Automatic annotation (TrEMBL):
Pathway: Cofactor biosynthesis; NAD(+) biosynthesis; iminoaspartate from L-aspartate (dehydrogenase route): step 1/1. The keyword Metal-binding does not apply. GO terms for molecular function: aspartate dehydrogenase [NAD(P)+] activity; NAD binding; NADP binding; oxidoreductase activity, acting on the CH-NH2 group of donors, NAD or NADP as acceptor. It holds the Pfam family NAD_binding_3. It is an enzyme of class 1 (oxidoreductase). This is L-aspartate dehydrogenase. Residues 154-238 form the Aspartate dehydrogenase domain. Residues 7-117 form the Aspartate/homoserine dehydrogenase NAD-binding domain. It catalyses: L-aspartate + NADP(+) + H2O = oxaloacetate + NH4(+) + NADPH + H(+); L-aspartate + NAD(+) + H2O = oxaloacetate + NH4(+) + NADH + H(+). The iminoaspartate product is unstable in aqueous solution and can decompose to oxaloacetate and ammonia. Its EC number is 1.4.1.21. It comes from Methanobrevibacter curvatus.
Amino acid sequence: MIVGILGCGSIANILINELKDDEDIKLKYFYDNDIEQSKKLAKIADGIATDNFELMVDKSDLIIEAASPRAVGLFIENTLKKGKSVVIMSVGYLMDVNNRKNLERIAKKNNAQIYLPSGAIVGLDGLKAASIGKIESVTLTTRKSPRSIGSNGKKEIIFDGKASEAVKIFPTNINVAAALSIASNMDINVKIIIDPEINRNIHEVHVKGEFGSFTSKTENVPSNINPKTSVLAAYSAVNLLKSLNKTIHI
Ligand SMILES: NC(=O)C1=CN([C@@H]2O[C@H](COP(=O)(O)OP(=O)(O)OC[C@H]3O[C@@H](n4cnc5c(N)ncnc54)[C@H](OP(=O)(O)O)[C@@H]3O)[C@@H](O)[C@H]2O)C=CC1
Ligand SMILES: O=C([O-])CC(=O)C(=O)O
C-alpha cells in the first residue's frame, strides 16, 4: 500500500519510525505547508516530498491526514472524490455534523473509506459497544501541562462545556473529545485542566449507561516534537494501518 502523508510534524515522524521496515505499507509521499518539512521527512523515509497535493493523491492508495482540522477541510473532500481512502487524525473537524455527513456522502459515492484512529485515548471500543444500549453520560477530563496546552498558567480549569465548543477553542488539543462524541453519538461533556505538576497528557473518561459504567484513564507520554500530541495517537494510526491487511480483526 502506497501512502501519502498530509502534515509532516510529530505524528508523521513517529509513523516513519514505526513503519520503516514494514513490507506492506510504504510511506512514500510527503506534503506540508512547509516544503522543507516535507523534504526532511521524505529523506528519512526514502520517499518523495511534493508541493502538489493532487499529484500525491493520484499516486497514493491512501492518504493520512496528520496536519490540522483546517487541512481536513481544505484537502479531504477532493481526496475522497478521487476514490482514495483517508485516515483522519484531526477528528475535531468531524464534530460538525454537516462536515461529517458531507465527507461520508462523498466517500460512499466514490467507494472510499474514512478511518478515524482511536488516537490518544483508550476505551473507544467499550464505548462503541456500550452505545448499542442507552448511554446516560460521557465525560472527559483532560489534564495537560502548560507546555502541552501552550500556556504558561497556574493550575486551573480552562474549559468546562461541550465537545463541540472545545474543538473550536482548542482545535489541535482535544480531538479525543470528538472521537468520544462520534463513537457515542453524543456531544459529550469536557473539562480541560492546565496542571503545571504533570508531564503527561492525561485523559480520564467516565461512561454511564444501560450496560453499567466504566472509567478509563490514559496517562500519555507527549511527543518530543509537539508536546500537545501524545505518542499513543501516532501509534494508533500505525495500528490502524497494519490492521487493514489483517484477517483477524480485534
Ligand atoms: N485524534 C487524536 O487523538 C489526536 C489528534 N491529533 C491531531 O493530529 C494532527 C497532527 O498532529 P501533530 O503531528 O502532532 O501536529 P504537528 O503540528 O506536529 O504537525 C502538523 C504539520 O502539518 C502542517 N499543517 C497544518 N495545517 C496544514 C495545512 N492546511 N496544509 C499543509 N500542512 C499543514 C503543520 O504546519 P504548520 O506548523 O506550518 O501549521 C505541521 O508541519 C493535529 O491536528 C492534532 O491536533 C493529535 C493528537 C491526538
Ligand atoms: O494527544 C493528545 O493527548 C490529545 C490531543 O492532542 C488531541 O486530542 O488533539
